[in-house]
């Protein structure tokens, strides 16, 4: 029950466009280890599965529990720029820059 194994399983499922199975695998991985890169993959798999409400819930929960996670904030900044939501992208980027500038505790 290694979290990396579940993450790899999710990656394989995404490669086969089986997003529902990918979501399950990423959720199992995150239950074992809270890793920003896996949270990113879960968020994206939920979006790709058409589960936008669930993706927003994951986003809100992760940002609440891990506000200084540079991986997730960087992803959100890029994601919201692609979705043409510059205000949301700027907030995510501000969090990332604050982290790097040392204004937020690790």
Structure write-up:
The chain is 77% helix and 0% strand. The longest helix is centred in the last third of the chain and has 15 residues. With 106 residues, it is mainly alpha-helical. It has six helices and no strands. It is globular. The mean pLDDT is 88.
Summarize the SSE layout with pairings.
Blueprint: H1 3-15, H2 19-32, H3 36-48, H4 52-65, H5 70-82, H6 86-100
Please tag this protein with its features.
mainly alpha, 6 helices, globular, 106 residues
Described by strand count, sense and barrel closure, the largest sheet is: none
Portion in strands? under 5%
Label the structural class.
Answer: mainly alpha
Helix fraction by DSSP (H/I, runs of at least 4): over 70%
Number of helices: 6
Series of secondary-structure elements, N-terminal to C-terminal: HHHHHH
Mean pLDDT: 88
* First-residue to last-residue Cα separation: 28 Å
Low-confidence stretches: none
Number of strands: 0
Supply Rg.
14 Å
Net shape: globular
């Amino acid at each position: 029950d290694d979290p990396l194994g579940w993450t790899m399983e999710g990656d394989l499922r995404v490669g086969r466009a089986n997003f529902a199975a990918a979501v399950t695998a990423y959720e199992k991985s995150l239950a074992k280890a809270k890793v920003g890169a896996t949270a990113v993959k879960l968020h994206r798999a939920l979006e790709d599965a058409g589960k936008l409400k669930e993706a927003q819930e994951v986003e809100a929960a992760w940002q609440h529990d891990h506000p200084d996670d540079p991986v997730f904030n960087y992803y959100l900044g890029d994601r919201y720029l692609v979705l043409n939501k510059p205000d949301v992208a700027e907030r995510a980027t501000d969090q990332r820059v604050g982290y790097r500038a040392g204004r937020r505790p690790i």
